[in-house]
Amino acid sequence: MNGGIYVHVPFCRSRCRYCSFYSITNRKFPDAKEFTRAIFRHLETFEKTESITFNTIYFGGGTPSLLPASFFSGVIEGIFKGVKLTDCPEISIEMNPEDVTVPYLSELKNAGINRISVGIQSTSEKILQKLNRTHSVKQALRAIEDARSVFSNVSCDLIIGIEGENEEKRVLDGIPFEKLSHLSLYMLDGVKNRKLSADEDNTASLYSRLCGELDRVGLKQYEISNFARPGMESVHNLHYWKGNPYIGLGPSAHSLLYPFRIWDHSGLDRFMRGEFKTGRMEYSQRVFINEMVMLALRLRGGANQTTFRKRYGIDLIREFGWLCDKYPEFVRCDGKSISLSRKGMLVSNEIFQELIQ
Fold first, then answer.
1. What is the C-alpha separation between 185 and 314, in angstroms, rounded?
2. Interior CA angle at 189 toward 225 and 237, to 5°?
3. CATH 3.80.30.20: which residues of the chain?
């Protein structure tokens, strides 16, 4: 079975107001070589991965692009030595626009990176200030151009639903779609995020319009928040939604090695010393299957009857067809799969609560 490796780089210049991930902003960052060694020590704690062929590495954060290219080449080389990797894995890095320069991009390419994800978040200066982003719109759009001049696989992130951003043209204004192979469009959750005001009245209609606009420029929706040109979907993120195994390296990173979900909660200082504090939850088969259905429903194609029978030994339609009866406007069932309608994607959290209670 294929799987992925996630490397969490928790260092940031400042904390964005929408972010809930573990990050460090108020102290000197450790030496990149020392952090690399800590990552390798963490990798050594994972056992029984011989049956997994890893085909993705994803550097997320935090702000991975704060670190030199030598960090990524070192980690990639160490991972190749430590686990079974395919010859040409998808290797992604998240970048802040202000870090994107052609020389640095060239160094990253030489280090083994082959996919860039640029966090532009908004094309409105006013919204960027609300988000506490440290770049301008001009820098963001330039970053996409520069990234595409070096890499053939470039993605960007946008956030919608923030109070004050409710015009479709404004949200997509100036984005060079022809340079993008992938785009992630996230809706601000006003319940989970108390630091920002969500414009819930306009978010649903804006999301629907933007989905149509992205389709017209060739970016096809394949997941609630993700759009790609055919064949350019994020292989790494598909591991999460398909229930494939993955290892998370770095402070706060999560892993899925069935029947266990594993996470680190040691904090940076202990992590650097190799004093890992690990959380571990063992799934019951029922809880795991419910979670896998929930994740599969995030995909445009939904949960597939044949796949679930083969992987989990269940009759998907018989066991979960009640979702279609309870939410006929939002959940579709064609006898081969269960999936969400476009309207269903907008109320997906309510539907998912039915599966994780």
1. 33
2. 30
3. 2-239
Q: Tokens 């597939």 identify what position?
A: 304
Fold of 284-357: Arc Repressor Mutant, subunit A (1.10.10)
Rounded to 5°, the CA angle 268-265-54 comes to: 90
Domain 2-239 belongs to what topology?
A: pyruvate-formate lyase- activating enzyme (3.80.30)
- Kindly report, as residue ranges, where domains of CATH 1.10.10.920 are found in the chain: 284-357
pLDDT in tens, 290-305: 999 999 999 999 999 9
Mean pLDDT of 224-243: 98
Q: 85 phi and psi, to 5 degrees? A: -115, 150
The one-letter code for the residue type at 208 is S
Interhelix angle 69-82/32-43, nearest 10 degrees: 20
235 vs 68: CA distance, rounded Å: 25
If phi > 0 it is left, if psi is from -120 to 50 it is alpha, else beta; for residue 132 that is: left
Give per-residue pLDDT as tens, 82-109: 999 999 999 999 999 999 999 999 999 9
Model confidence band, residue 169 (pLDDT cutoffs 50, 70, 90): low
Higher pLDDT residue, 201 or 67? 67
Name which of 209, 198, 88 is nearest 153 in CA terms. 88
Query: Of the candidates 327, 328, 311, 309, which has an alpha carbon nearest to the alpha carbon of residue 319?
Result: 309
User: How is residue 141 written in tokens?
Assistant: 């759009």
Rounded to 5°, the CA angle 74-75-77 comes to: 65
Tokens for 138, please give them. 């001009």
Q: Are 32 and 70 in contact (CB under 8 A)?
A: yes
Report the predicted TM-score, pTM, of the whole model to 2 decimal places: 0.95
What is the DSSP track for 202-250? Answer: HHHHHHHHHHHHHHHTT-EEEETTEEESTT-S-HHHHHHHHT--EEEES
